[in-house]
Amino acid sequence: MHPDRVFAIIPAYQEAGALPAAVRDVLTLGYSVVVVDDGSRDGTEEALRGMPIHYLRHATNLGQGAALQTGMTYALSQGAEIMVHFDADGQHPASRIAELIRPILEGECDVVLGSRFLRREDRELVPWKKRIALRIGIVVSGILSGVWLSDTHNGFRALSRKAASRIRLREDGFAHATEILGCLRTAGLRYREVPVAIRYTAYSIRKGQPVSNGLNVVVDLLLSRVLR
Fold first, then answer.
1. Alpha-carbon torsion 16, 65, 178, 4, what sign?
2. What pairs with residue 113 in β-bridges?
């Protein structure tokens, strides 16, 4: 498969400072890039001007889940064969995309989920407060989706065209990470986890999810089920 058939979908909200470097890292490897500007007001569009990317914009901030769905729908329309969810803040190493998508290319599965907890060296990179929040997410996601993984709220994941066409995210915020797992189970999609190392910087830690977001995710998911 030619690299440009692999689309990195990058949801971005107020990431003008870190986003250009993340985009350049992906472009250097020959992959296509879709940036979904989720209503930013920090000059994100100007920061990306001149880059050979697909730029989409939400008029208002709708949330990461909504931005990913917008990006996947667009990538499907452009003939993408594999879609990679990629963070805008530089946490995800573009050099690991090849390893992430390999199981899909080799026909082993439809979805690949990155995990920070399969290798000791990757696990030790995660700040201890972050580990608490992630452990909450693992339990919540397992109970609500019926899919138990070692790392359920890792945004570094890859989907085949088949998988992306069968997944429709309705959770706009961070609860989409649990919703995706439910979609995998309902659609009968094959999935596996692969080890990934996440780069934590002072910036990414400062803007990351607090431990209390584990409770927020639970509330979002329960409300969505009641209101449907």
1. negative
2. 157, 193
List Cα–Cα distances, 5 to 89, 101, 187, 207, 218, in angstroms.
23, 12, 24, 31, 35
pTM for this structure? 0.86
Q: What is the pLDDT of residues 19-71, one digit of tens each?
A: 999 999 999 999 999 999 999 999 999 999 999 999 999 999 999 999 999 99
In degrees rounded to 5, what are phi and psi of residue 210?
-75, 165
**Contact, 15 vs 89, CB < 8 A?**
yes
The CATH code belonging to domain 3-227 is 3.90.550.10
Domain ranges in the chain are 3-227
φ, ψ of residue 35 in degrees (nearest 5): -100, 125
Measure the CA–CA gap between 142 and 136, rounded to whole angstroms. Answer: 10
Cα 136 to Cα 192: distance, rounded to the nearest angstrom = 21
* Separation between Cα atoms, residue 122 and residue 116, nearest integer Å: 5
Query: Distance between CA atoms of 77 and 43, rounded to whole angstroms?
Result: 27
Note the helical H segments in 43-96: 44-47, 64-77
